[in-house]
Fold this protein.
Amino acid sequence: MLGKLLSREECAECRLCCCFDSYDLWETPVINRATHDAILEKFKPDQDFLELEGYYLLKMQKEPDRDLYYCSLLDHGRGCIMGKEKPFDCRIWPLRVMDLKGTRVIVLSPVCPLVQTRPLCEIQAVAKELAPEIFRYARENPAAVKKYISGYPIMLTEE
């Protein structure tokens, strides 16, 4: 989805979005039932999930002797095993949908090193182009909307 902003090769080299430490596990993608079922049927039949009121989180194992959790769908040699079918949160990264005092906003994650090299006007243009799909998904999957965190630049507000 973000091909106009980040190349697949750049993302595949970085993979920062596929790695979490204990204080940013909240960033793990919230998965709806359809994606949950697709993971089990097509990609990883032994995947464990944490259920969250009709939604799911991938259960990840902590790396030995490190405060890191890699996404269980990441093949360190090839990238995401789901390819173009990866969870919605992953497809729109480094954009996120957050709730700011009852209003949904599209924000930019400040931790993506690649997007920081792009002009802000390009990032905003891509966010605007994707906004209808992002906000539709957020309305249909409210558990995917995170609470706004200060420091995340707001790209767009839902009208």
Remarks:
- Strands lie at 19-20, 49-52, 55-58, 69-70, 74-75, 79-80, 95-100, 103-108, 146-147, 154-157.
- Helices lie at 8-14, 33-43, 88-92, 120-140.
- The mean pLDDT is 90.
